[in-house]
């Protein structure tokens, strides 16, 4: 069973729970229900609780300056009414942003460890950034305004999403699913979350499914491995059901103008610092002292290391603590054009000098804090590597132009997301986002990002696993799959490569069971919230900026006792239009079984628009609909004529009624 099923979120003092869960049961408005539906989003949910009584002397301590920690500070100020100077963020690194990074220059080479694909219904994320002043637009505009300006005028799509055979574009117009594969997906969507503990993707799906267009598109877009959590894949399918029909060409996605650090971290940290928030770098928090009384746990101190020396930060009885559990990018090993990265982390234990230590020590105190070893304990299963290419004009740039939607120098969408080589032993992908990717990037420089999923296979050209390769060798493997390896020397002379080997980058996807991840506010905790990618929420996925912000928001509202609810994920997963479009996409863009019957019934009614247009003309619809019925009921079935007659009468009746005055 899932954690939410075993330990449902209980209302406090008769009040609705802070974290809404639309899957908890049927919702119906009545006199006792003061709140709107649990998945309702939009302006009505933007209310700010008034009045807010500040607690005298209260301080907030936030461990981790990634998007979760920064968002916690934001909500403490905006909705919690705390003063910025009473909030302190602690971070091991010397720069804010956590996994949202972007650094370097044209001379030494740029580096981005990863990128983020985003969609429209990141409701909590956009709730923050519609109140964060824009990076470049004049005063009065927000980051959301800036983001919309870019994407509304430059739609994203890909013209070369899948490639093979050294430079040839593979047909990616459909998901390439057989009826067996489609049924496997439908059954997965119908399964209860409670029945999927510790089951892997490859344990459930047929071997042939893992060779389909769908799986190459899915795994390279979301970074799923075959041996990872089937439950998480299911949650992703529900979360992004509205984007299934845009999966092939990535037209359902939106991207920032610049890298994620400059686009989001810079404007948000600028706002927080203006409000007085303090960020202390070079501080590694490794444990929390607690007092326990009558099943209540209260943090009294933060144990940390500053400049290698032990220190203790006292936490007052009214103070609140927000702590990041685990880290996707902890222990990253770096390399460059001539040096392969050397991983310092063991396969099973990250060691005490690690961002996992805090969670490990919390887990020793009580089972309510989960099982971190389920996530950090298999580096071979959670690791992959990325390479950032800083390029000047070369045959590689010429090839890129062939595969791009717009000229890379135009400032508009370039590849429209990752391009994946389906016959790559590494499952290699690369992308070029809008350029410049950094605000100060020279006009004659392009930044490309490359990554692969399989770390234990020899390359097709370079006979080594990717982690054993230098930047030049990874560049050679890329050029091989692009069909330009014969021009490698000319390309290498104009390209700088920086490498990042990340041992825990998909640790959050490792197979898990109920209780393996703690809730945002674990049971009995009075002043502690856990945030980030390794905590349990009702229905949301992980590995998104949206999920990080959601955990921070839940934590702030709960610890401060704010009379507000954090809505469940966007109700798009229940929208009949999205379900119908998704069914059509899964059926390789052909009408799914029964779809023509729906058209026959609903045509010329108010609800006709919910159905995707049919590929055939109206005059053949009756014939095709009857063929569908004969398939479902049998050609000789007496029911066939009865049903056809009923459809005709129903349709004619609706049409006649619509003409009555």
Task: Describe the structure using short key phrases.
18 strands; Oleate_hydratase; disordered N terminus; alpha/beta; 661 residues; eight-stranded mixed beta sheet; 20 helices; five-stranded parallel beta sheet
Write the layout of secondary structure elements.
Elements: H1 3-6, E1 60-63, H2 67-78, E2 87-91, E3 103-105, E4 109-111, H3 123-129, H4 143-152, E5 162-164, E6 168-169, H5 179-190, H6 201-204, H7 213-222, H8 230-239, H9 260-274, E7 278-281, E8 283-293, E9 296-306, E10 309-314, E11 320-324, E12 333-336, H10 357-365, H11 373-376, H12 379-382, E13 384-391, H13 395-403, E14 419-421, E15 428-431, E16 446-452, H14 471-482, H15 488-492, E17 495-502, E18 528-531, H16 545-560, H17 576-586, H18 595-602, H19 621-633, H20 638-659
Parallel strand pairs: 1-2, 1-11, 2-7, 5-14, 11-18
Antiparallel strand pairs: 3-4, 5-6, 8-9, 9-10, 12-17, 13-16, 13-17, 14-15, 15-16
Helix pairs in contact: 2-9, 2-16, 3-16, 18-19, 18-20, 19-20
